[in-house]
Amino acid sequence: MLILMKVKTAMFAGALVAPVLATVLAPTPPHDPDGSRHLVAASFTYRAAGDFSRGDRPVEGPVHDLRLPADLVVMKRQVTAREYARCVDDGACPRVVVAGGSQDVPVVGVNWHDATAYAAWISRKTGVTHRLPTDEEWTFAAAEKARDEALPLIDPSDPARAWLARYEAESSRERPQAMAPQPGGTFGTNSKGLDDFAGNVWEWTDTCFVRATLADGRERITNTNCGVRVVQGAHRAYMTDFIRDPKSGGCAAGVPPTNLGFRLVIEAPHSVVADTFRNVTKLLGRT
Hints:
Layout: H1 2-24, E1 36-39, E2 43-47, E3 51-54, E4 57-59, E5 63-67, E6 72-75, H2 81-89, H3 112-126, E7 130-131, H4 135-142, H5 159-171, E8 202-215, E9 218-232, E10 236-240, E11 260-261, E12 265-266, H6 270-283
Parallel strand pairs: 3-8, 8-11
Antiparallel strand pairs: 1-6, 2-5, 3-4, 7-12, 8-9, 9-10
Helix pairs in contact: 1-6
């Protein structure tokens, strides 16, 4: 009887291990599962994205102390041309021109729709949800690489002067010397172990462009335009969602971004699989 119970226990444990092993030993997904970082939720400072006004005068977006509702798992680097090409070969992503011909640099020349198509494809391939980050999540992940640069506020009665002042302010920003996409890590690793934030590739976020008014300490959104999305890099910008080449237009104000690429948030980290595997092996007494 005791032997039979041991056999049943072993069979039950084996059934638990099988799907876990299948996951662990599955073919490597299009991006390295170890190329992501688990960021523990913590408080951070965030300036709201969009156009804000108070009493018909333009003002900077309000600054908030935020805390993400949960931990964040994000790709260590941007999606590469080689990874994106696999999605193209699978018929799930539009073909784009690879800058310089290298496959091991960030894919650029992609619009918001291309990035979301890749996220949907890799989610199907891996069974794990991948998506673009919100602007808040990007800012949290970028840490000290996220720049909060207040632009000059000019009397809106002279729109041309206001636009020129903002353009000059953005033009004076320091620009990355390299224009072409560079190998991962070229622009450094931030304090959270993530590469190339604020380099020469601006990253799509899922955050829509908004206009809002400020009164009595409250924000009231007057218009939301999801045909324009927030992109983040050496500075924040706003791009029409179908734009692939920033130099062709689509930026709300100032000098356009150099390149448009993306990295993804992963909603079910591979560490969960590893933890499950370790728990099952302990159950089997294989520690």
